[in-house]
Amino acid sequence: MSRRPSRFLLGGRRYSPAASLLLAAPFLLLVAVIFILPLATLLHESLFVPAPTTAHYARAFAEPVYLRVMLRTLRIAALVTALALLLAWPVAWAMSRSRGLGLALLGAAVLLPLWTSVLVRTYAWMVLLQRNGVVNQLLLQAGLADAPVRLLYTEGAVVLAMAHVLLPFMVLPIYSALKGIPEEYSRAARMLGASAWSTFREVTWPLALPGVTSGCLMVFLLALGFFVTPALIGGPQQMMIATLVSQQVREMLDWPFAGALVGILLVFVLAVTIAFKRAVRLDRFVGSA
Amino acid sequence: MGGPDGMQGRVAVQGLVKRFGPVNAVDHVSLEVSSGEFLALLGPSGSGKTTILMAIAGFEYPDEGRILIGGEEVTWAPPNRRNLGMVFQRYTLFPHMSVLENIAFPLKMRGVGRAEREERARAALATVRLGQMGGRKPAQLSGGQQQRVAIARAIVYRPRVLLMDEPLSALDKNLREEMQIEIKHLQREIGITVIFVTHDQTEALTMADRVAVLDHGRLQQLGAPRELYEAPETVFVAGFVGETNFCEGRLARPAARGEAVMVALDGGGTMPAIAAQALPAGGRIKVALRPERLRVLPADGEGGTARVTEAIYAGNATTLMLEGQGGQRLRARVPAGAGLHEPRPGEAVRLSWQPADARAFPA
Amino acid sequence: MALNAAAYAVTVFLLLPTLIIAPMSVGPERLLSFPPKGFSLRWYAAYFEDRDWLRATLFSAEAGLISAVCATVIGTMLALALVRGRLPGKGLIELLVIGPVIVPHIALAVAMFLVFEQLRLTGTLLGFAMAHTVLALPFVVFTLLAALYRFDVELERAALSCGAGPLRAFRHVTLPLIAPGLVSAALFAFIISFDEAVVSFFISDLDRKTLPRKMFEDIDFNISPTLAAVATMLTALTILALLLGFGLKRGLERRARAAGTAAEAGP
């Protein structure tokens, strides 16, 4: 009993560095093999195959086809983010101001899509938008169109479906920011003579801004690398970078070039993430479910 | 006393040092608690009192020193092997267990059979006067009731020592005073050693047999409540325990501890006092004098030594704010109904005190 | 109020596309229409009679269960180390935790495709389980971090002072109190694995594929009405899982923190 015990786990106090590392070891091992190793291998392909070169990266920027895909990806991601913000604000605001059944219903409406398969939701949009789909049937019946309108395989359809799929990622952080603003603040602002618009501009918006940033960032990042929805709803004219990567790998078998495209995507995503480091918060999505 | 049974609840802390970074949270503290004694560890936050308790409990390992319980060294033993009872600041009842399950938990951990567990848990619950509450969940009890359950849980396995970490600080004033008396009774009844951490000096003085006063990790004084109050050994203890006037001045010649001295006050005049510690010549001196030991007499035409600036009536006593000739600010307390002179603001008064009540410290 | 009306309109927009599939899936004709022209379960029958669909479903369920268990265990260990431990390189580890969320799934999928070919993991249950565990871990870790931060460490100390060893303190006190978090985490992990489409798209092979991969192929080749039946069943399953998870979590929470609020109301 006269020696300091060297035990690993000491309940009630902080675990020793050795014990902590032991607890983290399975995670580190798995992430090393299933996350870091694959990405490193792919990036290695892009820079060292067949010989050390930056040619694959240069090609992505030199050929107009690829440059167009990248610019389109940025544009669609930005449009999706803007549309999602516009749609998410009223829902988040209504959620933050309701309790009981109202909150439960709104919450369910946001959470159900979050946890429903992206494929199911994309498929639903295809059924709605296809040539003889529900929307076209309605348009014809209402006499708004003489012949079925081309809805699927348009950029509008891609943006709409992606905004729909990613909407919960916008609603939840904004909701959690709005929920934290006591109602008294806007009442106080109104009492002090602010109009509804000034109250929004001077009080609500600045306080909600962290949630808005967080939501926009999540949606934008997810949209940039989105594969399923644009691949199925968009045609070749709406090809985004993810589909291009997939094509290079599956059809062209051009691993180095696919690696370069992934490299560009990763650098961009990491730069945005580091620039907004504090806004990347997962707790907003897990805490509310 | 002194037999093998009487040794069981003895706690000794020897030369304890605990560093947090460059700071010595506990700085060479030694103290002994005898079996059945109630010791309070008193100090402001950051004084090291809780760290000492945690080292005794086994939640902190010291950097130097030893801890003995019942004569046996336990410095490095894990908390669950020390057989101590502990009551925490925030009740810490297990929220997913009923009151009775909470109390039976330590017995379960000790392999006591189900029937005996229940019987002993019920008995412990009766001891803290909550016999009817066994089936409830902790969240359904009030704060005071929760703390009583926590006490029952800590004594049900008859540990030799009960550690209490500011157990009453979460309760409101009336309940706190009620619980102070109740804990004291319980401790006498079951004859357990109690080590009680508090930052509330009244609580320490009311409850403890002896009080250890700590400041910045050092033990300032260890003694009975009366000793601490009437004969503080350091400026810190004089200031922290009870209310005190401090007058500053100098001493012409050195003095040994306990010697009568005349202190030359900064604003002029002299003050008879006794040296609480050995005092060097020419050094700065602080004299501590309790407000209720200061006698306030009418000036009687001879010219007063102080002027009353304010009189605050508080029922059982009146507190006088005084300004001495040298500009010193003093407080005096005049008990009501004792027929003593109660001067008005602006009045000149004469002050008097027993030199033994004025204790001089090196500043 | 206008904003409220907008909120409910968006809610309808959120739910309608998914929910409109249900009535359409019971239509008898090959061409799906709304409202359906009659009632027939033939597309459901088509699903249950097709060995490919059933095999894919079973494979997804297996991968989902294994991923849920692995992600919950590994994620709990890591969350404990992050909250309770002193981890060297904590910042880097935290970055690794959110990594699989920030890195686009297409990048991960293609990278895994490349490495899994060499490691012969393509189309194997092990490969899917590992890939999906990595994808689910961020959500598991964050759920458990929240649960552990809510947990009062002093309770564990209380258990030790009562004579419980560290492991028994964990089992009797910590575990029951973080159980709601564990249930949510496992549920998240299962759903993430079961619905995961992108990585599955690349690491499946001809014979061993997950349900989302099978759906992907069917959507890409022909929008067959069987898909409507599958989509409806998946949506129903999600609703069921969320309700079940919510109910279970509530039940555990009620057990953990008894309903009464007497503590706050009392003196």
Total discrete domains of chain B: 2
Shape of chain B: elongated
Give the ordered list of helices and strands of chain A. Answer: HHHHHHHHHHHHH
| CA gyration radius of chain A, whole angstroms | 24 Å
Average pLDDT number of chain A: 87
- Would you tell me which CATH topology of the largest domain in chain B applies? Rossmann fold
Query: Do you know the CATH topology of chain A?
Result: MetI-like fold
Question: What level of helicity do the residues of chain B show?
Answer: 10-25%
Q: pLDDT below 50 for ≥5 consecutive residues: which ranges of chain A? A: 6-11
Question: What is the string of helix and strand elements of chain B?
Answer: HEEEHEEEHHHEHEHEEHHEEEEEEEEEE
Q: Helix count of chain B, per DSSP?
A: 9
> Biggest sheet of chain B, in brief?
6 strands, mixed
Structural class label of chain B: alpha+beta
- What's the alpha carbon Rg of chain B, rounded to whole Å? 25 Å
- Overall spatial form of chain A: globular
Q: Largest interface, per-chain counts?
A: A-C, 91 and 99 residues
What would you say the CATH architecture of chain A is?
Answer: Orthogonal Bundle
The CATH homologous superfamily name of chain A equals: MetI-like
How many separate structural domains of chain A?
1
Mean pLDDT of chain B: 90
- Number of E-state strands of chain B: 20
Subcellular location (chain A): Cell membrane
Membrane topology (chain A): Multi-pass membrane protein
Pfam families (chain A): BPD_transp_1
Organism (chain A): Teichococcus rhizosphaerae
Spell out the blueprint of helices and strands.
The complex is a heterotrimer of chains A (289), B (363) and C (267).
Chain A: H1 17-48, H2 55-62, H3 64-96, H4 100-115, H5 118-129, H6 134-141, H7 155-179, H8 183-191, H9 196-224, H10 228-233, H11 241-252, H12 255-275, H13 283-287
Chain B: H1 4-7, E1 11-20, E2 23-33, E3 38-42, H2 49-57, E4 64-69, E5 72-73, E6 84-87, H3 99-109, H4 114-127, H5 143-155, E7 161-165, H6 173-190, E8 193-198, H7 201-207, E9 210-215, E10 218-223, H8 225-230, H9 235-240, E11 245-250, E12 260-265, E13 270-275, E14 284-289, E15 295-298, E16 306-313, E17 317-324, E18 329-335, E19 348-352, E20 359-362
Parallel strand pairs in B: 3-8, 3-9, 6-7, 7-8, 13-20
Antiparallel strand pairs in B: 1-2, 1-4, 4-5, 9-10, 11-12, 11-14, 12-13, 14-20, 15-19, 16-17, 16-19, 17-18
Chain C: H1 2-25, H2 42-49, H3 51-84, H4 90-102, H5 105-119, H6 125-150, H7 153-161, H8 166-195, H9 198-203, H10 211-221, H11 225-256, H12 262-265
Helix pairs in contact in C: 1-11, 2-11, 3-6, 3-8, 3-10, 4-6, 6-8, 7-8, 8-11
